[in-house]
Design brief:
Elements (H helix, E strand, L loop, with lengths): L3 E3 L22 H4 L8 E3 L9 E7 L6 H13 L4 E6 L14 H11 L5 E4 L1 H5 L4 H11 L4 E7 H5 L7 H7 L1 E5 L5 H5 L2 H5 L21 E4 L8 H9 L3
Parallel strand pairs: 3-4, 3-6, 4-5, 6-7, 7-8
Antiparallel strand pairs: 1-2
């Protein structure tokens, strides 16, 4: 699937209005440059021309499992997003390469699991050459200026979110929705990121307004949990279960 195709405009593509703020100063240079072509790139499905809300789920998807599908379906219900994009990462900087399936295998795993007409499996980071979520989000905002993005993650990720590259920039780039996971909620809400952006947290009953809020804005959702874990699936497969 080709996600980006070049179009030739009359002039250059502007960066987001807040791209000159100090938070954008440390964005990797290649994330703010034009693509290899001298023309900007836009999603092949015309997403840049639509005024839609899109939930972004990044991860290794090693493998994709029912828990990913569950979170996406809950995002449709609680956040009211129009689509959910699964951004399959070539290699998570915080994870070991040991036991990591090849990228094409993980992409195919995600496509098989994405049994919903509004879930899109994307290889955005592979095509852009970005390694960090902060860079990817800046580039997506540049290429899709009319889409309102919401970053979706589990409570386990919020616990160590302060270890992500330029993690504060992520909160200032897109709205963030955190879904509870078994045994993680207390530690997640006591995390460094939760404290840093505590005053920008909105009540769960207002979750459907999240994509339209002034940034930063985030929500913690105590929804029905799903026990599936990629680690457990890999361990079970290794044990021949």
């Amino acid at each position: 699937m080709t996600l980006f195709v070049p179009l030739r405009p009359a002039s250059g593509t502007p960066l987001p209005a807040d791209s000159r703020s100090p938070l954008f100063a440390k964005v990797r240079p290649h994330a703010l440059r034009m693509p290899a072509s001298d023309a900007p790139a836009v999603p092949a499905n015309g997403a840049d021309r639509r005024q839609v809300t899109v939930g972004l789920m990044g991860g290794s998807f090693n493998p994709a499992h029912a828990g990913h599908l569950h979170v996406a379906e809950m995002a449709f219900r609680t956040l009211g997003v129009d689509e959910v994009w699964w951004l399959v990462s070539p290699q998570n900087p915080l994870k070991s390469r040991d036991g990591m399936a090849p990228f094409p295998v993980r992409m195919e795993s995600a496509r098989r699991m994405a049994r919903h007409p509004r879930i899109r499996v994307r290889d955005v980071e592979m095509r852009l050459g970005t390694h960090f979520t902060a860079d990817t989000l800046v580039e997506l905002r540049r290429r899709c200026p009319r889409i309102r993005f919401v970053w979706i993650m589990g409570a386990d990720n919020l616990i160590g979110f302060h270890r992500w590259e330029r993690w504060s920039l992520i909160f200032h780039s897109v709205a963030v929705a955190v879904f509870d996971r078994p045994s993680y909620s207390l530690r997640a809400l006591a995390s460094r990121a939760a404290h840093r952006f505590g005053r920008f947290r909105i009540p769960s009953k207002a979750a459907r307004t999240l994509a339209y809020r002034r940034l930063p804005a985030w929500v913690f959702l105590h929804t029905r949990r799903h026990p599936a874990s990629a680690t457990q699936i890999r361990e079970a497969a290794g044990a021949g279960l």
